[in-house]
Amino acid sequence: MKSLAVRITALCLGVAAVAVIVAGLVSARLVAGAAQEVTGQVLANQADVVASQLADGSAVGLLKVVKVLRGQGITVVLVGPNGTLSSTDPRSTEAARLAGSAKAAQGQRVSGVETVLGRTLLVEARPAPNGAFALVEEPATDPGRQLLRNILLALAIGLGVAAVAGLLLARVLARPLRRAAQVAHTMSDGRRDLRVPVEGPAEVAEVAHAVNGLADALQHSESRQREFLLSVSHELRTPLTAVSGFAESLADSVVIGDQVAEVGRTIQSEAHRLDRLVSDLLDLARLGADDFRLDVVEVDLGAVLRDAAQVWADRCRRKGVEFGVDGPDEPLVARADPRRLRQVLDGLAENALRVTPAGRPIVLSLSKPSNAAVLQVRDGGPGLSEEDYGVAFERGALHARYERLRPVGSGVGLALVHGLVARMGGTIAAGPAPEGGAAFTVTIPLI
Description:
Elements: H1 4-56, H2 59-71, E1 75-79, E2 85-86, H3 90-98, E3 110-116, E4 119-128, E5 131-137, H4 142-188, H5 202-251, H6 259-286, E6 297-300, H7 301-319, E7 322-326, E8 333-336, H8 338-355, E9 361-367, E10 372-379, H9 386-390, H10 397-402, H11 413-423, E11 427-432, E12 438-445
Parallel strand pairs: 7-9
Antiparallel strand pairs: 1-2, 1-5, 3-4, 4-5, 6-8, 9-10, 10-12, 11-12
Helix pairs in contact: 1-4, 4-5, 5-6, 6-11, 7-8, 8-11
């Protein structure tokens, strides 16, 4: 019963059976009522004929009629002037009595349907000279039996038709679903080039659309992941190559004297770069986990901004980049992780410093336009295109776009920043800056 085809077939059989049974019961009731009505009408006509024969005084004709009536299963009950009833069948006599046939002796026409000993009897009484008479007949049951046979035959035919229709319908519905399942199984094996034909009813076609959309999304996601891994591999290889080369130079005594200190500083710098990249990758991988740790406390955002400004003012000065900071005098307190918030500011400032040429500005700002704090990192660099602002926080998106055009990072930083801000309950957006470059805006609710 787990198969869709079996369930559809069983449903069609059930519907057909219920429909035939209900129709049969209704028809049986209607036919039985119609048969009784027709029988009653015929019996009434026969009673009128007998009454007219008695009125004409034709005794011979009356005897023939009575004989014919008895041959048809109709019992004649005689009614005396004083209302006494007599016949050869006690049940017919009782039915005539219950129907009030005695009134016919007083000149009334009497018609009735009575049940005696579980059997239904029709009664038609008419006045006659010296009393009255009543014709009593039991409606035929043969039409009911015939109807029952017809219902059973219709039920069998209906079930057969329903079984065939159910199987055909099940095949029509199940075929595209099986194709979708086959494509999904093939996708689980690594294939991404197959698509499901969109056909069948709207709901089945919607399943095909969904599977095709999933295949497209997986193909796009895996393509982006490959590009991201390639960019990260390149970023890892560069400092590793430098560390390895300078270490070999030291080991082979190629570098001596005053050059050793410079080589050591270079190795240290590249090691820090590797450590930062690995840390960012680990943080990015842990962001989606439930055990990612955030130490959320009440934080003065202005203090975090001032601490970051001290570091980045010195770094900008050494590169010849103008640095500015703009913050309110009043404290702005929010619930956040100060270490992660500082990591966000440092990541955005590092990206800005990488692309901002000497003589151009970098600005860190904090404002309170409403009931939220807005942290901004703006630069006077080349900025981004309009479409690139929408994908700025996707892993490796800007790296792949600008790798050969300008200094770029690993493609991890902005994705990590976006994840950290989201985990702290804030939002981040990218757009053009008044300074001519890009502006990254972090919005955090205040207490």
